[in-house]
Amino acid sequence: MNTAIALAALTALATTSGGFIAIKVRDRLHLVLGLSAGLLLGLVAFDLLPEVFEMNTSTFGNVPVVSIALVIGFLTLHFAEQLFGSHEPAHSDYGHDHEHSLNIAGTLGAAAMAGHVFLDGLALGLAFKVSDALGYAVFIAILAHAFSDGLNTVSLLIKSGHWTKTSILLLGADAVMRISGAALGSYIAFSDQSMALYLAAFSGFVIYLATSHILPEAHSRHPSRLTMLATIAGVVAMWLIVGNIGE
Fold first, then answer.
1. Helices (DSSP H) in 161-190: which residue ranges?
2. Do 144 and 39 touch, CB atoms closer than 8 A?
3. Residue numbers of the domain that contains 96
4. Cβ distance 10 to 143 under 8 Å?
5. How many structural domains does the chain have?
6. Which helix (H) or strand (E) holds 203?
7. Minimum mean pLDDT among 100-104, 202-206, 210-214: which range?
8. pLDDT per residue over 71-90, tens digit each?
């Protein structure tokens, strides 16, 4: 089996694990979220951005096109959430007046997850086409992202009263979409310039998820120095991982 597809299947297991842990254990989840955010930021800073700037040196308006792609990726995810249903932290408290909007947010949030995990899978497939080192680094970061996705989605669905068979199907859709993205990235021919543009846009997605979703929720659960240390640990861990697998 193709390496990217096999690893995409493993990240789907991480999503499911995050969901069940959200049900069973809550006290230390802020540390896991902080670590996840650090891993994602480390991936972008130490691996993705250096790679895409090397793969595509084109400019537009005296600015690197990969920089433009990164901003577009960030804003696309932000605008999509504003237009189709904003992300609500899993721990948020709601009164009865907000019940209807929470139900909508829970359903839309879970459905939207299937879309962006497809992009995760696509990035994984493309990363392995660039190099094994980049592919494994992306896999580690997506693993952290997948765990966080499962945790947040299941928590939100439980709170909205939508934890039903439909919710289990949505977690299944997560697995299918991530594997489908990895297959597309692995078997469709892309030029180096095109891969660089996508991976730059994916970097924008990752920065948005880490800074707008994961970190705020981690600190809202338990604002603490330990959470900040966990984030730093994630960044340092990705630094060491990238340095070692790149040798």
1. 165-187
2. yes
3. 3-245
4. yes
5. 1
6. helix 192-208
7. 100-104
8. 999 998 888 777 765 454 44
